[in-house]
Amino acid sequence: MAGAERKAELRSERLSLRDSIPQIERIEKSLAIATHGATAISLDQGAVVSGFLPIRSEADIRPLMTLLRDRGARLCVPAILDKQTIVFRELLRGAELVAGTFGTFGPSPEAPELDPQIMLVPLSVFDERGHRIGYGGGYYDRAIERLHQKGLKPLLVGIAFDCQEVASVPNEPHDIRLDAILTESGYRRFDLSSAHD
């Protein structure tokens, strides 16, 4: 099976598992993610952290984002500009959120655009080597590549539930690996010393 087909199959399978988590359990798991992440993610005062506002059955990381803000982080969330591009707009306490694409909400276009130093990355599938499968649009891969072209190397922390882990994600040399994964079980750093395995 070709890599793209296998990725699509894994994405469908793992998102179905995520969808099947009862809502109350999803809330509990999201709070566990916040507890683990608040202590495991180290940041400097004023560090820019990109999070996301949950859609569908994603983990709700708003509690984690609040805890990181309380520790001095500047928060931002993605905004889709077109079929190729997302930018990260500052999320200020009390600011009005406007409707975006794919059922998302976020800060208005007037909000400042920030370059994240720490990125909390949504995903559909991950493996123990830090490979991830997104939702198929490639937005995060392109956004991370743009940051790399600016000479920036944000810490990439995947956000998922344990049920989204698989033994192995098909990967290609251009795929960008996560530095860590954060689930309801805790925070796990990946060994990225072997770039392509």
3D structure, described in words:
It is an enzyme of class 6 (ligase). Belongs to the 5-formyltetrahydrofolate cyclo-ligase family. One of its GO terms (molecular function) is ATP binding. Pfam families: 5-FTHF_cyc-lig (PF01812). Keywords: ATP-binding, Ligase, Magnesium, Metal-binding, Nucleotide-binding. There is one protein chain. This protein has one domain (3-189): 3-Layer(aba) Sandwich (Rossmann fold). Strand 4 and strand 5 form a beta hairpin. With 197 residues, it is of the alpha/beta class. The chain is built from 4 helices and 11 strands; from the N terminus they run H-H-E-H-E-E-E-E-E-E-E-H-E-E-E. The mean pLDDT is 93. The longest helix has 18 residues, at 23-40. It has helices spanning 3-19, 23-40, 62-70, 139-149; strands at 48-50, 74-80, 86-90, 97-99, 105-107, 118-122, 125-126, 132-133, 155-159, 180-183, 186-189. 30% of the residues are buried. It is globular and about 45 Å long. 28% of the residues lie in helices and 22% in strands. Strands 3-2-1-6-9-10-11 form a 7-stranded mixed beta sheet. Strands 4-5 form a two-stranded antiparallel ribbon. Strands 7-8 form a two-stranded antiparallel sheet.
Strand order in the sheet with the most strands: 3-2-1-6-9-10-11
Give me the CATH fold name. Rossmann fold
Percent helix among the residues? 25-40%
**pLDDT < 50 stretches:** none
Taking all Cα atoms into account, the compactness measure Rg is 16 Å
Helical stretch count? 4
CATH class: Alpha Beta
**CATH architectural group:** 3-Layer(aba) Sandwich
In terms of DSSP E residues, the strand content is: 15-25%
The SS-based structural class is: alpha/beta
Characterize the main sheet.
Answer: 7 strands, mixed
What shape does the CA trace take? globular
